[in-house]
Amino acid sequence: MPPLGSRNHTVGPDEAPVTLVEYGDFECPHCGRAYPIVKSVQRSLGDELRFAYRHFPLVKVHPHAEHAAEIAEAAGQHSKFWPMHDLLFQNQTALEDEALIAYAETLDIDPVWAARALAQGLFGDKVREDFASGVRSGVNGTPTFFINGVRYDGSWDAASLLEALVVAAQ
Amino acid sequence: MVLPAGTTAPDFTLNKSPDATLSLSELRGHPVILAFYPADWSPVCGDELALFNEVLPEFQRYDAQLLGISVDGVWCHKAYAKARNLEFPLLADFEPKGEVSRNYGAYRTKEGFSERALFVLDVKGVIRWSHLSPIMVNPGADGILAALEQLSQPAGAGAS
C-alpha cells in the first residue's frame, strides 16, 4: 500500500505506533456500519492510533459515491475533510448533489463554489488516485482496512478490530 | 490444477448473449483476462465481478479484454449483468456443461461449477499468469494488474 503522505487525510499523531487505513465508499452500507466501529476504536486507543481514509467509490453500483467522495475532498481543501466525512456517513441515504452542497454550507463552505467543484470534477483526480492505489494494493471490496500497511482480512467488529490494532501496536 | 503460465490458452467459443457467440481467438492481439467464477448471484462472486467492473478503466489502459465465465445460462447471465450494470461479457460454459472450465483446470466436478480462477493471456493467447482462489475469497484485482504491467514491459525487461 502506498505510504501516507501530505495528500492523505489522517487523524492522530504521525508517530503513533499503529496506523489504520480504510478504503471506503460513502454510499456503501458496510462502510456505514464500519463508521461507528472505527470511531469506537479511535476513542479506545487515543494517541496510540493514526487513522486515515482513502476513497474507493464503487460508482457502477453507487450512483452518488463519486460526488460524495469529491465533496469530502472539496471540504478537505477548507480543512474540513473529517467533519464532512462524518456528515456523509451519518446521512448515507441523502447523498444527492443538493444534499452534498447543503452539507458544505453547514460547514461554512461557499455552496456556489462547492456546486462548481462537483460540476467541474475539480477533485475527481484525487479520488481516482486513491481508487487506483487501492486496486494496486489488493482492495477487494469496501470497506478494506490496512493495519500498518498490511491488508486486514479479519472480522471488523469492534472487539476484533481493536484487538488486531492493539497487537499491531506492540 | 489450473493451467500454469507458459501454456497456450485452449481456444473456445461460447455464447456471450442469447444470440451471439464469442471465440477466444477473436481477441488475438489484445491481452485477455479470463475470470472463472462459481455462479451468478452468489454474494462473493458478486463482489469480485463488481470490483472488476469498477476496475475496467484500469484494465483498458493495457488494452485488455475481461471475460467472465461460469456455467450459468445465457438468460441468467443477461439478467445478472443488467442487475449489476456489468460492462464486460459473461460467457455461458453451459453446454457441454463446464467443458471450457475443465480445459483450464478450473472446474469442480463434485459441485458442478467453475472454480474461482483467473488467467491473464498475452496478445498471442499464451497464459502468462494464473491464480486459483478459495471459493469464498475475492482475489482482488492487484494480481491481474501486476500481470498486465509485466506484459506491457519490453521483452526481457520483466523478471519473473
Can you offer a commentary on this structure?
The complex is a heterodimer of chains A (170) and B (160). Chain A has 170 residues and is an alpha+beta fold. Chain A has one domain (9-169): Glutaredoxin, CATH 3.40.30.10. Helices cover 49% and strands 14% of the residues of chain A. A five-stranded mixed sheet of chain A has the order 1-3-2-4-5. In chain A, strand 4 (144-147) and strand 5 form a beta hairpin. Chain A starts with 8 loop residues before the first strand and ends with a helix. The model of chain A has no long low-confidence stretch (mean pLDDT 96). By secondary structure, chain B is α/β, with parallel strands linked by helices. Chain B has one domain (31-152): Glutaredoxin, CATH 3.40.30. Chain B has a five-stranded mixed sheet. Chain B has a two-stranded antiparallel sheet with strand order 1-2. In chain B, strand 3, helix 1 and strand 4 form a beta-alpha-beta unit. The model of chain B has no long low-confidence stretch (mean pLDDT 93). The interface between A and B is medium-sized, with 13 and 18 residues.
How many individual β-strands of chain B? 9
Assembly level: heterodimer
Q: And the CATH topology of chain B?
A: Glutaredoxin
Biggest pleated sheet of chain A: 5 strands, mixed
Q: What structural class do you assign from the helix and strand content of chain B?
A: alpha/beta
The portion of residues forming beta strands of chain A comes to 5-15%
Number of strands of chain A: 5
Pair with the biggest interface: A-B, 13 and 18 residues
Mean pLDDT across the residues of chain B is 93
SSE sequence of chain A, one letter per element: EEHEHHHHHEEH
Q: Tell me, briefly, the overall form of chain A.
A: globular
Q: N-to-C SSE series of chain B? A: EEEHEHEHEEEEH
Mean pLDDT rating of chain A: 96
Number of helices of chain B: 4
The radius of gyration over CA of chain B amounts to 15 Å
The CATH level-2 architecture of chain B is identified as: 3-Layer(aba) Sandwich
Distance between the termini of chain A: 21 Å
State the strand order across the main sheet of chain A: 1-3-2-4-5
Assigned CATH superfamily of chain B: Glutaredoxin
